[in-house]
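Backbone-to-sequence.
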């Protein structure tokens, strides 16, 4: 009897430390998107339709799904809401899971298909309760262990069979971003995955509500030992990340957020646990600062507009787009807090566009991380590739403040509106890229400029008020 008991205990110990068996990614049905899907691959179309301020006109921007570029996109979707369990659990890959995953990929990640072929595995992710503050670190680490095991197995299969020397952009949202972060740490330390790290051109981690972080006054040495967090527009082989909040809303405190727990460090999914005495959070390398500037453009899936507003504006593209809709800036950062703050640009005459941010009942705009500032992210990725962004629509304000005059529309054809926000005398000047001056005048109130005499091209608009110069392009 005693021998039987000891043998039973030995089996329990073995099962506790047994390696998790990954999902079989040699099977086509375990992929949502990728070349291995053949004729069953998902259809991606990153094109969008810009809705004018008065909502009466539309401009279609046709963008192809680029499957022949030198880049591939490896995607991980966010947490699927498939149950209301209060316990942390692993979600199995069921037919319902696949339907929800396909929808999440279309809603969150389609815009990145303009850079390369999309690869997206189905993976056994954690449910919503996995990220509850009531969930123990042990429970959470156990659930995330399965998610990371699947993601690494899928990436390994992709690299071995379909990469063919291409550069890779990792893209995720929410839990997908967290799992990508943990994958990167494994690529640092696991000899099986280390050869893949030089192939990573960029890791785009949208809305990882809890990070990332680095040693203070550095860009490495926090979540990862050597992988840097992007800071400059030209940085590559780094992590680009942001989280979105309403301007003026309180931010969450990172030290109270999971998944910063020592068990993930022990499992090799983080280099160090967050310690705000030695670390700082580096978030949003999208070109924003504590000073407000206009966000380049925003896109929302038509289905989201339909759900929120009851209309998709009858657009023929997958995405509805807005230009000159929001200001963006970074909240006053400290070692334990961060956030991209967005605010609807006030007071544009005749602006009847419907705004999901206005409809959001919370200051945390996590669900719109891949929508509001996506134009700035897309253009920044083009810049990292050494290419010119084919669509930059904002005014390009170098020094923007809430008191700066509103300039709209942009781009413009014949009429350009200038609307001073505060009283004063403004000196206005328009010149081309060669410095030739085409228009110069003084204004003290709203004005409409007839620019029909200008040829198509890029022009610079300078406004001087009280010796403070504000430049637009």
């Amino acid at each position: 009897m005693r021998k039987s008991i000891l043998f039973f205990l030995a089996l329990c110990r073995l099962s506790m430390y047994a390696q998790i068996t990954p999902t079989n990614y040699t099977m086509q049905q375990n992929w949502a998107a990728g070349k291995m899907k053949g004729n069953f691959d998902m259809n991606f179309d990153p094109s969008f339709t810009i809705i004018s301020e008065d909502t009466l006109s539309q401009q279609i921007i046709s963008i192809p799904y680029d499957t022949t570029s030198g880049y591939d996109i490896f995607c991980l979707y966010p947490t699927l809401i498939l149950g209301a369990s209060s316990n942390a659990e692993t979600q199995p890959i069921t037919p319902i899971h696949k339907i929800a995953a396909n929808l999440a990929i279309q809603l969150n990640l389609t815009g990145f298909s303009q850079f390369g072929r999309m690869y997206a595995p189905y993976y056994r992710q954690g449910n919503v309760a996995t990220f509850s503050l009531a969930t123990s670190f042990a429970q959470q680490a156990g659930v995330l262990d399965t998610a990371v095991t699947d993601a690494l197995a899928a990436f390994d299969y992709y690299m071995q069979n379909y990469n063919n020397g291409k550069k890779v952009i990792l893209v995720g949202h929410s839990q997908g971003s967290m799992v990508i972060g943990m994958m990167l740490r494994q690529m640092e330390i696991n000899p099986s995955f280390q050869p893949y790290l030089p192939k990573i051109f960029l890791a785009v981690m949208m809305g990882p509500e809890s990070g990332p972080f680095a040693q203070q006054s550095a860009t490495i040495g926090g979540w990862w030992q050597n992988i840097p967090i992007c800071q400059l527009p030209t940085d590559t082989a780094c992590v680009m990340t942001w989280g979105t909040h309403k301007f003026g809303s309180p931010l969450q405190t990172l030290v109270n957020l999971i998944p910063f727990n020592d068990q993930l460090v022990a499992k090799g999914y983080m280099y160090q646990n967050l310690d705000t005495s030695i670390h700082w959070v580096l978030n949003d390398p999208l070109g924003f600062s504590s000073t407000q500037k206009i966000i380049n453009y925003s896109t929302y899936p038509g289905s989201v507009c339909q759900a929120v507003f009851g209309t998709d504006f009858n657009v023929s593209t997958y995405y509805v787009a807005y230009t000159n809709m929001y200001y963006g800036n970074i909240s006053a950062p400290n070692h334990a807090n961060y956030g991209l703050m967005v605010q609807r640009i006030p007071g544009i005459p005749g602006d009847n566009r419907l705004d999901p941010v206005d409809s959001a009942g919370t200051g945390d705009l996590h669900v719109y991380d891949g929508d509001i500032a996506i134009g700035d992210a897309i253009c920044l990725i083009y810049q990292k590739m050494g290419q010119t962004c084919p669509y930059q629509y904002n005014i390009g304000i170098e020094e923007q403040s809430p008191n700066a005059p509103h300039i709209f529309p942009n781009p413009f054809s014949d009429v350009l509106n200038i609307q001073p926000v505060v009283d004063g005398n403004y000196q206005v000047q328009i010149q081309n890229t060669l410095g030739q001056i085409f228009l110069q005048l003084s204004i003290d109130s709203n004005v409409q400029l007839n620019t029909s005499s200008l040829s198509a091209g890029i022009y610079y608009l300078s406004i001087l008020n009280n010796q403070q110069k504000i430049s637009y392009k």
